């Protein structure tokens, strides 16, 4: 066995609770962030590279992580985006013919701090009962007092703007320029599989940096607009909220996913709030109130749209609800070409029940043209 005497490691939570573990491979150092957990049994590479997780320490509840290696095309962005990994059993060996690397090498390329052999069931129960909180994972177990001080200075996710940390610096194109339609996407943390899903339905996408003005997007003359998923609190995203307001005012086809959905709600004067614990997994049940059908969805969010405000807003209709806790899972505007969902129809990872939403977006664009 390669790592018989692995270094001691631990996770210290903001409330002082400590869980012990061991360093993964050559991992050394400390990583701070908001501790959150994902219950997906597959899709670790997609999760680790999803820009929405920027600044978060990821606890994977599946008992085995790494056992099918990694494969370039499964990454949802150009690098690992989580702040650190906490897992139960880390597999140094992998068995999948198509894999092109081990998870250990994949994470090492990003110098990610990862710890394993943690009692993740106890840790998840603690977070579920006490709510989302910051933490630090470390191999510097002798520096506990210093780490406690540093941890106290880590900002709370509530109120934190993070889209600027993951957004593209320059606009870029995705798809076939001879497509039927043009979609302008505001990158506040976009996942690759969203781009694939829009492009494969006959739209050429231009991706714009998070702080692009509406006029600069409109100058490309797009047929529709897209607001992406992304990390952090939606509330500080004043520029994106302004862009959404202008798209809505012009009644251009607009679709938003997750952070983009929250931005659309805020553009309509509906507030968002930090949840006790977010939804992160690939088996979240949602009901489509327009069709009465259920869908099993991929989710990853720690904020949500205020349901009472959304329901009493005369411009809006709540179209989807989360069946576990009745939170808002989707909205549309009654008299505008605009809709959004809190979850991830592009999956990656997760089920494909909700792919119809991309078809709907393209139909909305077609109707408007
Ligand atoms: N996946 C996302 O877009 C997440 C949105 C937002 N950062 C939240 O946690 O609620």
TrEMBL record:
Biological process terms in GO annotation: 'de novo' pyrimidine nucleobase biosynthetic process; 'de novo' UMP biosynthetic process; glutamine metabolic process; L-arginine biosynthetic process
Domain Carbamoyl-phosphate synthase small subunit N-terminal: 7-138
Recorded GO MF terms: ATP binding; carbamoyl-phosphate synthase (glutamine-hydrolyzing) activity
Entry EC number(s): 6.3.5.5
Reaction(s) catalysed by this chain's protein: L-glutamine + H2O = L-glutamate + NH4(+); hydrogencarbonate + L-glutamine + 2 ATP + H2O = carbamoyl phosphate + L-glutamate + 2 ADP + phosphate + 2 H(+)
Record keywords: Amino-acid biosynthesis, Arginine biosynthesis, ATP-binding, Glutamine amidotransferase, Ligase, Nucleotide-binding, Pyrimidine biosynthesis
Homology family: Belongs to the CarA family.
Description of how the protein assembles with itself and partners: Composed of two chains; the small (or glutamine) chain promotes the hydrolysis of glutamine to ammonia, which is used by the large (or ammonia) chain to synthesize carbamoyl phosphate. Tetramer of heterodimers (alpha,beta)4.
Task performed by this protein: Small subunit of the glutamine-dependent carbamoyl phosphate synthetase (CPSase). CPSase catalyzes the formation of carbamoyl phosphate from the ammonia moiety of glutamine, carbonate, and phosphate donated by ATP, constituting the first step of 2 biosynthetic pathways, one leading to arginine and/or urea and the other to pyrimidine nucleotides. The small subunit (glutamine amidotransferase) binds and cleaves glutamine to supply the large subunit with the substrate ammonia.
UniProt name for this protein: Carbamoyl phosphate synthase small chain
Native source organism of the sequence: Spongiivirga citrea
UniProt lineage: Bacteria, Pseudomonadati, Bacteroidota, Flavobacteriia, Flavobacteriales
Record gene name: carA
């Amino acid at each position: 066995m390669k790592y018989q005497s692995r270094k001691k490691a631990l996770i210290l939570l903001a409330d002082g609770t400590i869980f012990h573990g061991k360093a993964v491979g050559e991992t050394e150092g400390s990583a701070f962030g908001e501790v959150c957990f994902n219950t997906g049994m597959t899709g670790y590479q997609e999760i680790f590279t999803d820009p929405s997780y920027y600044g978060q320490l990821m606890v994977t509840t599946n008992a085995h992580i790494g056992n099918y290696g990694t494969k370039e095309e499964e990454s949802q962005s150009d690098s690992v985006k989580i702040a650190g990994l906490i897992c139960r059993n880390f597999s140094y060996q992998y068995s999948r013919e198509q894999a092109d690397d081990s998870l250990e090498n994949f994470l090492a390329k990003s110098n990610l701090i990862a710890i394993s052999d943690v009692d993740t069931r106890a840790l998840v129960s603690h977070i579920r009962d006490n709510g989302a909180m910051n933490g630090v994972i470390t191999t510097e177990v002798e520096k506990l007092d210093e780490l406690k001080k540093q941890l106290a200075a880590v900002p709370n996710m509530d109120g934190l703007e993070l889209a600027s940390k993951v957004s593209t610096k320059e606009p870029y194109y995705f798809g076939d320029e001879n497509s039927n339609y043009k979609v302008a996407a505001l990158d506040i943390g976009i996942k690759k599989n969203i781009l694939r899903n829009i492009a494969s339905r006959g739209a050429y996408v231009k991706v714009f940096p998070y702080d692009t003005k509406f006029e600069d997007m409109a100058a490309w003359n797009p047929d529709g607009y897209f607001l992406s998923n992304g990390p952090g609190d939606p509330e500080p995203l004043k520029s994106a909220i302004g862009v959404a307001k202008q798209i809505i005012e012009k009644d251009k086809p607009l679709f938003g996913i997750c952070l983009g959905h929250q931005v659309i709600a805020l553009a309509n004067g509906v507030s968002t709030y930090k949840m006790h614990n977010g939804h992160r997994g690939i088996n979240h049940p949602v009901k489509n109130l327009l069709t009465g059908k259920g869908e099993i969805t991929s989710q990853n969010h720690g904020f949500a749209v205020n349901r009472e405000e959304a329901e009493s807003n005369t411009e809006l209709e709540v179209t989807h609800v989360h069946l576990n806790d009745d939170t808002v899972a989707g909205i549309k505007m009654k008299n505008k070409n605009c809709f959004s969902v809190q979850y991830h129809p592009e999956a990656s990872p997760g089920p494909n029940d909700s792919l119809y939403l991309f078809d709907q977006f393209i139909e909305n664009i077609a109707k408007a043209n």
